[in-house]
Design goal:
InterPro entries: HATPase_C_sf, HATPase_dom, His_kinase_dom, NatK-like_C, SPOB_a. It comes from Heliobacterium mobile (Heliobacillus mobilis). This is GHKL domain-containing protein. Keywords: Kinase, Membrane, Transferase, Transmembrane, Transmembrane helix, Two-component regulatory system. With 299 residues, the chain is α+β, with helices and mostly antiparallel strands. The chain has six helices and seven strands; from the N terminus they run αββαααβαββαββ. It has two domains: 85 residues, no CATH class; 145 residues, Heat Shock Protein 90 (2-Layer Sandwich). A five-stranded mixed β-sheet has the order 3-4-5-7-6. Strands 1-2 form a two-stranded antiparallel ribbon. It is elongated, with a radius of gyration of 29 Å. The two termini are 33 Å apart.
């Protein structure tokens, strides 16, 4: 985490230096314009239309070439500023994700003591079977939180923890299988939120239609064919006649004016990365699978 902070500070210094260079280039261009068009060796700076036309006729090609060079330099500096800003934003997002994970572990540590007290209470009441059931339920959720730490992508881990610990996710049984740590996943953090976040949110809302014991969501992270991806599965079924329509903009089976956007954005983001998006019914569950080629394999 300290390395991320140092990267942000370094980015700030680079942006400051690039901005100074860009401002310097603008100042030189303005000076040249004033000097060529409005400077006379006897009278100093003047604003004379005839003199401006004379200087333009005499030095026109030189002026245009020089100004063009400064414009190109200025544009290059702007491009560098943009690149540094994007890197700084990316680093900041990763740092925020790491903070969320650290905070979650602190909460788990505090909660663990509370759980022990509950278990101790069951034992003192001579209810060992209730204590055992309680331990099993807590152990599943605790192991899920530990699993996400094996992911190389902190933004993915942060999304999972946020969803699992939300009010909607507290009553859902999440099963996470990590067959790949997603270190080569070609999504940016914002794209990950759009794709994984929307798929998880839809799955959570869908399983809440069932009794709590049947609220199950499975998430599988995998790598194959020089790419990586994930599958989100939840109890339920999408009618076959609308399977091909759910990714269309504005199509929804929900009520509300903001519906019909999430899956459309998921589809557009996957297409942008030249990946594949599949959906199918099976084993009384709905499966959404996303696969993205590694960046090195993108044309």
């Amino acid at each position: 985490m300290q390395e991320k902070i140092k990267e942000i500070e370094k980015s700030k210094d680079e942006i400051k230096k690039l901005m100074q260079n860009a401002i310097g280039a603008i100042a030189v261009m303005l000076f040249m314009v004033i000097f060529v068009f409005g400077f006379d060796k006897n009278q100093g700076i003047i604003l004379n239309e005839n003199l401006s036309r004379l200087n333009l006729s005499k030095y026109g090609a030189y002026i245009i070439l020089t100004l063009l060079l400064f414009v190109l330099y200025f544009l290059e500096e702007i491009k560098k500023i943009q690149e540094v800003l994007m890197e700084a934003i990316e680093t900041t997002r990763q740092l925020e994700s790491a903070h969320k994970i650290v905070e979650m572990y602190r909460i788990n540590q505090h909660e663990f003591l509370n759980q022990l007290q509950v278990i101790s209470g069951f034992i003192q009441l001579n209810k060992p079977e209730m204590a055992l059931d309680y331990i099993k339920g807590y152990n599943i959720r605790f192991r899920n939180n530990l699993n996400v730490s094996h992911l190389a992508r902190m933004d993915v881990a942060a999304i999972l923890i946020t969803k699992m610990t939300s009010e909607l996710g507290e009553s859902i049984d999440f099963k996470i299988s990590i067959h790949d740590d997603l270190r080569h996943l070609a999504f940016t953090p914002s794209e990950t939120v759009t794709v994984l976040g929307n798929l998880l949110q839809n799955a959570m809302e869908e399983v809440h239609k069932f009794a709590e014991r049947n609220r199950k969501i499975e998430i599988d992270f995998f790598a194959k064919e020089k790419g990586s991806g994930f599958t989100v599965s939840n109890r339920g079924k999408i009618p076959e006649e609308i399977l091909t329509k759910i990714f269309e903009q504005g199509f929804t089976t929900k009520d509300g004016k903001n519906s019909g956007v999430g899956l459309f954005l998921v589809s557009k983001t996957v297409q942008k990365r030249k990946g594949t998006l599949r959906v199918w019914n099976g084993d009384n569950r709905v499966h959404f699978q996303v696969w993205i080629p590694d960046q090195s394999n993108e044309s």
